[in-house]
Design a protein that fits this description.
The protein folds into 2 domains: 170 residues, 3-Layer(aba) Sandwich (Isopropylmalate Dehydrogenase), CATH 3.40.718; 141 residues, 3-Layer(aba) Sandwich (Isopropylmalate Dehydrogenase). It has 12 helices and 12 strands. Strands 3-4-2-1-5-12-11-6-7-10-8-9 form a 12-stranded mixed sheet, sandwiched between helices. The chain is globular, with a radius of gyration of 20 Å.
Length: 330
């Protein structure tokens, strides 16, 4: 059957609404439904001179292919009018209500995958709502025990053992249990959601030179290497721990399906440099498929008509590919 994707329009003061309008102008081999406030989307379309027909979405017996120039909208009412570039904490619950509706729809089978436009974490927290990001929020909403962040740009995929932690807390967070869980989730989802029969994973060390035999830190000796060896005995194809400063060289990456970095800024600068604007953020370890863009809300661009929808298009393409791989696996 034709896939049906739900796309959340993100922070209403940011570029999310206009990105959703931009992708509506082309054909897609699926049904696209946008979660958001119809009035905000209509106002942004008028301001940008976009001729996009907005149709309230109602569940149908079968998905209908997306038509260029139209957009089906799962209406979620905002609390306040949205002005491009101007954050309003009153709309923080609205942003989360979109995520809730989309995640619940994926769990119920109404939608095949979730694609998210960027949100502004700061304004959600300023509204008194504890929120560390899409990844953690969707894991709690869907019952995902251990969400794993993966960024992908064409054939390069980078996953993280830890995500939004201060650097001072990273070493203590890399435990045998956490590392084993992340490796198992990464290996499983590469098989089931990316269609890779026997994934090869390159694992970075934590310290410079992967610890230099203990002279620059013992995490590789005490935690990382023993955990990887245990998993290798089960048949997982794991290489490492290798020094992070050489992990992304062509020689190291030959035949590798994913790189596992220990922390956020060890792996993500490399992939964003390699493919910014085409990078897709994927949350593994969830019972649903979720992809997202590789950029933020770009408040300075909101309402200007200059926002690039390339990353959102890539996120939709990847979600569709993952739906096909998951269906083939089943």
């Amino acid at each position: 059957m034709l896939p049906r994707l739900i796309l959340t329009s993100g922070e209403p003061a940011g570029i999310g609404p206009e990105l959703c309008l931009a992708i509506a102008e082309r054909q897609w081999p699926c049904e696209l439904v946008v979660a958001g406030d119809l009035n905000i989307l209509a106002e942004r379309a008028r301001a940008l001179g976009l001729n996009v027909r907005l149709d309230p979405w109602q569940p149908a017996a079968a998905p209908r292919q997306h038509d260029a120039g139209s957009l089906r909208v799962l209406h979620v009412a905002a609390a306040a009018r949205a002005r491009p570039g101007v954050l309003d904490r009153a709309n923080a619950p609205y942003v989360l209500a979109m995520l809730d509706a989309a995640a619940d729809g994926c769990l119920s089978g109404q939608f095949d995958a979730l694609v998210t436009a960027p949100v502004q974490k700061s304004v959600i927290n300023e509204a008194g709502i504890a929120f560390s990001g899409h990844t953690e929020y969707l894991a709690e909403r869907t019952g995902g025990a251990r969400p794993v962040m993966l960024l992908a740009a064409e054939q390069l995929r980078v996953a993280l053992v830890t995500t939004h932690l201060p650097l001072s807390a990273v070493a203590a967070a890399i435990t045998p249990t956490r590392l084993e869980q992340v490796v198992r989730i990464l290996e499983r989802d590469l098989r089931e959601k990316f269609g890779i029969a026997r994934p090869s994973i390159l694992v970075c060390g934590l310290n410079p030179h992967a610890g230099e035999s203990g002279h620059l830190g013992r995490e590789e000796i005490d935690v990382i290497a023993p955990t990887l060896e245990t998993l290798r005995r089960e048949g997982l194809r794991l290489i490492g721990p290798v020094p992070a400063d050489t992990a992304f060289t062509p020689h190291r990456l030959a035949g590798i399906d994913a790189v596992l970095a220990m922390y956020h800024d060890q792996g993500l600068p490399v992939i964003k440099y390699a493919g910014f604007g085409r990078v897709v953020n994927v949350t593994l370890g969830l019972p649903i498929i979720r992809t997202s863009v590789d950029h933020g809300t770009a408040l300075d661009l909101a309402g200007s008509g200059r926002a690039d929808a390339g990353s959102l298009c890539a996120a939709i393409d990847m979600a569709l590919a993952m739906v096909r791989s998951r269906n083939a696996w089943r």
